[in-house]
Design brief:
This protein has about 280 residues and is mainly alpha-helical. The protein contains 14 helices and no strands.
């Protein structure tokens, strides 16, 4: 019976996006999300368009709870709303708690569909599900951002670190180039930012933080997020390479925002300029 349920779960996850229920609301959400930079002031967006996208994506998830694309889009939109629209701390926590719940509800049937497989067998089974790497990536983002909003120490005691680590490793195994080295970027940031707590986070490695972020940068040399994260990790854990960190920050600060990421790139450029100002 367990095997039958796993097979049925896999079949529902493999349904083509265009044929899935809620396709119309998914397209509506995408149309609103594409407008998220309208009315933005630098790295701060007007919440109107992304709020409309979130509403459409929520409906798409309800209409097709087993489909992967609506969940990925909803998590992505919740992340944008919480990070780039000037959300207050309480609102940010609420948005990211929803993103985490959406992620976990999507991952549960995915993991059930591989029927307990491990290692290479598990990754091979996951690869049969279109879009699954994106689900693991955005789930890692949701958990990581939630941990920051919740408080690093509190989140660590709730097991957030190992959860984010395992999600990021799965992204790397599924598609190392996804989101310009997104799996390595998340893993590196995790090892950079996680507190070292005896008997709880002994797995944290500052060396691995730098190695992972450098691997991410190799796959996206112009990625402003990776530039900023690597620069901050260098300044914190390898200050002898301060000149390298400065060059990364200067590149991030002066980057021309990409048309599809106008708000995001402007946001990280602002953070880089602040960090540079503090180095003088």
């Amino acid at each position: 019976m367990a095997l039958l349920l796993a097979c049925l779960a896999a079949l529902s996850l493999l349904a083509p996006e265009a044929d899935a229920p809620g396709g119309g609301t998914l397209a509506e959400g995408d149309a609103w999300y594409a407008r998220r930079a309208e009315g933005a002031r630098g790295g701060t967006a007007d919440p109107g368009p992304v709020d409309a996208a979130i509403a459409a994506y929520r409906r798409a998830v309800v209409q097709a709870p087993g489909a992967i694309p609506p969940r990925c889009r909803l998590i992505r939109a919740l992340f944008f709303r919480s990070s780039f629209c000037g959300a207050a701390a309480g609102e940010r926590r609420t948005l990211l708690e929803e993103a985490r719940r959406v992620a976990d509800a999507g991952l549960e049937p995915v993991e059930a569909s591989v029927n307990g497989a491990e290692g290479a067998e598990r990754i091979e089974a996951l690869r049969r599900l279109p879009g699954v790497a994106q689900l693991y990536f955005w789930s890692a983002v949701a958990w990581g951002e939630w941990a920051v909003a919740r408080g690093k120490l509190a989140a660590a005691r709730q097991g957030a670190g190992p959860r984010i680590r395992d999600l990021a490793r799965t992204v790397i195994e599924l598609d190392v180039d996804l989101e310009q080295g997104g799996g390595h970027r998340i893993l590196g940031r995790l090892h950079d930012q996680s507190p070292k707590i005896p008997f709880l986070t002994g797995w944290v490695s500052r060396r691995l933080a730098l190695e992972s972020l450098r691997r991410s940068l190799e796959r996206g040399p112009e990625n402003t997020v990776t530039q900023l994260f690597l620069a901050e990790a260098i300044l914190e854990h390898d200050p002898g390479r301060k000149d390298e960190a400065r060059r990364l920050l200067e590149s991030c600060a002066s980057a021309v925002p990409r048309p599809d990421y106008l708000v995001e790139d402007a946001h990280y450029a602002e953070l880089a300029r602040r960090r540079l100002a503090g180095m003088r």
